[in-house]
Structure formats: C-alpha cells, structure tokens
Amino acid sequence: MYNFSFQNPTKLIVGKNMIARLPQEIPAGKRILLTFGGGSVKKNGVYEQVKEALKDYATVEFWGIEPNPTVETLREAIALGKKEKVDFLLAVGGGSVLDGSKLVAAGILYDGDAWDLVNTPEPVTHTVPMGTIITLPATGSEMNNNAVISRKATKEKLPSNYNNPLFSILDPQVAFSLPANQIAYGIADTFVHVMEQYMTVTGVSQLMDRWAEGILYTLVDIAPKLKENQRDYNVMADFMLAATMAQNGFISMGVPQDWATHMIGHELTALHGLSHGHTLVIVLPGTMSVMRESKGDKILQYGERIWGITEGSREERIDQAIAKTEEFFRSLGLTTRLSEEGIGEETIREIEDRFNKRNVAFGEGKNITGAVAAQILRERL
Ligand code: NZQ
Ligand code: ZN
Q1: Mean pLDDT of 110-128
Q2: DSSP result, 194-252
Q3: How far is the CA of 137 from the centre of ligand 2 (A)?
C-alpha cells in the first residue's frame, strides 16, 4: 500500500424525506443561492420540498445549469450570486448542477474570469460554503471536490477541483423519476469510477480491492432489478450509495489510479455531445484491451471475482473478462461502439492531437499518451 492522507469532510444525510432537515444544516440568516438544472425538480416534487424547508431564509434562484455544465452559463450564475451578495449555495440536481455550482461557489469570491479557475492546477479553496441535494446517482459529486466544466466556445471539457460540499442530502425517492437512459448512464459511470481506481495492478491493497469489487458486484446485481422496477426503495438506495462510495476517495486509499477512460470520454462529450456515462462504456473495453499487458493480472482477478471466469488460457480469460464487461454495458441498453454513434477516424485524430498539444499522459503508468488513446479508440470503432 502506498502512503496517503485521507480526509472527506462532507456530511452525508441519507434517507426518506431528509430534505426537510435543511434548516438544521444551514445556519439561520444565510442568504442562499439555489442552483438548479432544466426543471426536473419541479416535476418530481423536490423543488417544493426545498422551498418549504427554506421558507425562513432569503433565497435567490438560478435555473438552467445544463448537462455538461458550461462556463458560459455559470458566469451568469456567478454574476447573480455577486449581485445578490449570497453567502451560501445549495445545489439541487444531478452531477452537472453540483459540478457547476462548485465553480460558482469559487467564482463568487473571485474577481477574474471563471475559466481561469478551471485552468488552475491546485484546488480552488476560497469558496462560498455549499450544500447539495443530489437527484441522480452517478458522479459522486455530492461527496468530492471535483467538477468537470465545459467551454462551448472552444469545445473543451476539463476537470478541476474546489471544496467538498459541507453536506449532501441523499433521498433515494428523488431518483424514482429518472428516465431509464439516465439510470443506465449512472450505473455505467459508477461502474467505471470503480474501474479507474481498481483496474490497475494486483497486490497493493487487498482491502481496497475487496471494497471496489463489492461495489462492482452490487452494481451488476442491482442493474436488472432497477430496470424491472426503479421505484424499489432499497434497490435505489443501494445504487445511490454505491455512486457516492465509488467516487469519494474511500476506494482509492493507497492504491494507483488510472482515469484514462474518463479523460478520453470527456473529449467524446466535448466534440460530439455524448452523455458522460455513455462515453465511458464505449472507451473502457478499449483501455482494458490495449493495456492488457500491464493490467493483465488485475483483469484476471476481476474476471474471476466478478464474472466467475476460471477456464481458458490467460489471454482467453482476459478476452472473456473484457467481453463480459461490454455485455454488461449493452444489457443496460447502451451502444458500446464509436461507429454506432457515427464517430470515426477524424475524431480519433483530433483527440490524439489535443492530448499531444496539452502534453498529457494518463493511466497508472502515465503512459497513455495521445498515440495510445488513439489506439484505444481505434479498437472501439
Ligand atoms: O437538468 P434537469 O432538468 O434537472 O434534468 C437532468 C438532466 O437532464 C436529469 N435529471 C437529474 N435528476 C433527475 C433528472 N430527471 C428526472 N428525475 C431526476 N431525479 O438528468 C439529466 C442529466 O443530468 P446530469 O447532472 O448532467 O447527469 P450526471 O449526474 O450524470 O452528471 C454528468 C456530469 O458530471 C460530470 C460529467 O462529466 C458530466 O459533466 N462528472 C462529474 C464528476 C465529479 N464531480 O466527480 C465525475 C464524473 O466522472 C463526471 O465526469
Ligand atoms: Zn465519471
């Protein structure tokens, strides 16, 4: 196990009707900026619950943080927050609303342009305090300091870091209203978050491996159950907590991490608008296949423990594990090939070029360069 330090300051408040607890979490007298997406919270009753809980506070509302939140929209929210002199932020929505609000929380206290904050290598920690109500299990944004922000003008999508939310409310009932495709993307995103932290090398931490496998196993088990009945409270509760636990640092203590699949996926979203979880299921089998030499032992462990693969030569078992992974993604109802989305060689060359220009390399071995990313994508045509 490698050396590490760990601290996750977000308080989780989990369960039925917990939105009513907001006044216990936000100090009296705070002037709150409420941030929302496109309106799903008005249809599923979440908005009413928030307004009722906050009836004794001064609130200002910002609507319209879009999926894959853009700096262009967030600049407007920052301007509103500054004008209204807010001193607390409550983000209500999916990962996009939460991510976007993290930038807003920093932008309100910053005089320059918000895109500067996205390009800051260190976490931006001078922020307005923020709480969240997550309505879509997927990103883990409710319990981490990450935000992925897009810039329409240049078709870029880049990760950056801020402060963790002070608290996050997880009421599984609010996710009952999700469209089936968002549940599929959310399961895929959660699964791949685990894989980014697990699918590296063997023998570093048995504990981290078992925690990660516990989440993967749970997702494989609950995916068909959610498809059958997404209003099953206990199943949705497990999904919601799985998403949080997959991306809050608990499974990455002292172990190497990859994240190449995500970084390649962000480019597919930036260039073609594909949903985040969808990009991951297209890319991940390629990452496993191209990196099969360095990841081989871990792929075998994963194949055996998650999919029960024990027969065949080493190469055959690796192939089976990758095939099972893709089969699982397809069982969610998602396409897994670039060609199915009309994406081809031109995009692959553009992504290779972008990575080369940024001079970046990803993966636990920092060896997934532009050229290797292109190789991964070519396997997915
Ligand atoms: O905008 P509204 O009307 O609220 O509708 C949203 C949106 O259209 C809808 N939705 C959310 N909750 C709902 C609901 N519809 C019905 N009922 C509900 N309860 O779902 C749509 C998608 O929402 P979005 O927030 O975009 O999805 P997600 O949570 O998957 O977030 C994706 C964004 O998070 C980033 C992604 O790159 C992407 O930009 N990520 C953030 C991470 C993090 N902070 O750690 C890590 C991830 O890897 C990811 O990169
Ligand atoms: Zn993700």
Answers
A1: 97
A2: HHHHHSS-SSS-HHHHHHHHHHHHHHHHHHHHHHH-TT-HHHHHHHHHHHHHHTSSTT-
A3: 11
